[in-house]
User: Fold Pyridoxamine 5'-phosphate oxidase N-terminal domain-containing protein from Saccharothrix ecbatanensis.
Amino acid sequence: MLEISQANVDFFAEVMPIVIGTKRRNGVVKMDPVWYKYRDGHFWLNTFRGARWLEHLERDQQASLLLIDPKDMTRTVHIEARLVGTTTEGAQEHLSELDERYQMGAHEHLEDQVRVKVQLEPLNVRSTLDWLAENAGKWNTSADQ
Assistant:
């Protein structure tokens, strides 16, 4: 399993949408904001059967993920991930967990949807958080001169 810095793990615990990028058949990237939870070294997403990005993900078995701090856009993490699996088992309960995490109301209007829980394993992580930590103090600002 990929070693991920504590700064990134802490960032993943913050509540924000994650953008998932998948490829359409014609090679064009499709990007969608989704809710997630990072647990046990994996990203867990929730969607519905019929979502285009899910179809692309199941076909290609890979995705790009992007997190951007809504309060500080210089804090970003880009992840290349592989699909571990999808399941409908426990997907409705998982959606309820995400409702609570994102402080949203229940999704009664989605009762007719077949919910799908998605598990992604990070393969590569590029982060401004790591870069900033590695380069702290290396920059001269006008105040330092």
